[in-house]
Amino acid sequence: MYGRGIIEMAMKWRKVSSSIADKGHCVVYVEDGMRFMVPLAYLNRPIFRELFRVSEDKFGFPRDGPLTLPCDASFMEYIVSIIQRRAPNEVEKALVVSIASARYSSCLL
Questions:
Q1: What does the mean pLDDT of the chain come to?
Q2: Helix (H, G, I), strand (E, B) or coil at 3
Q3: What is the rounded distance in angstroms from the CA atom of residue 12 to the CA atom of residue 8?
Q4: What angle do CA 102, 108, 109 make, to 5 degrees?
Q5: 63-87: per-residue pLDDT in tens?
Q6: Is 80 helix (H, G, I), strand (E, B) or coil?
Q7: Is 60 exposed, middle or buried (0-12, 13-18, 19+ CB in 10 A)?
Q8: Which residues make Cβ contacts (< 8 Å) with residue 80, sequence separation at least 6?
Q9: CB 28, CB 75: distance < 8 Å
Q10: Which element (helix H / strand E) includes 57?
């Protein structure tokens, strides 16, 4: 799933939860059940693209339920803060690599 597909998926989920999400945002959940309202502009960032890929592998593509990302609330808060603070791209790239590495190593087990 790449850029346009992620945005289309987010738009679908935004429509489903339109009564709950603010305009320009998408509601996502994390594994520990916390709910986050994420700006749509964030969803095309490399870290979110990787989380969507892992989510699809781990949970499958959600049909009728909420979109759940494979991380806990603390990690999601960290991701959002990195984007909000406009941290250097290297920080985001390091997170993407660590998520991808964890995903690959779990496949080997």
A1: 81
A2: helix
A3: 6
A4: 95
A5: 777 889 999 999 999 999 999 999 8
A6: helix
A7: exposed
A8: 36, 38, 42
A9: no
A10: helix 46-59
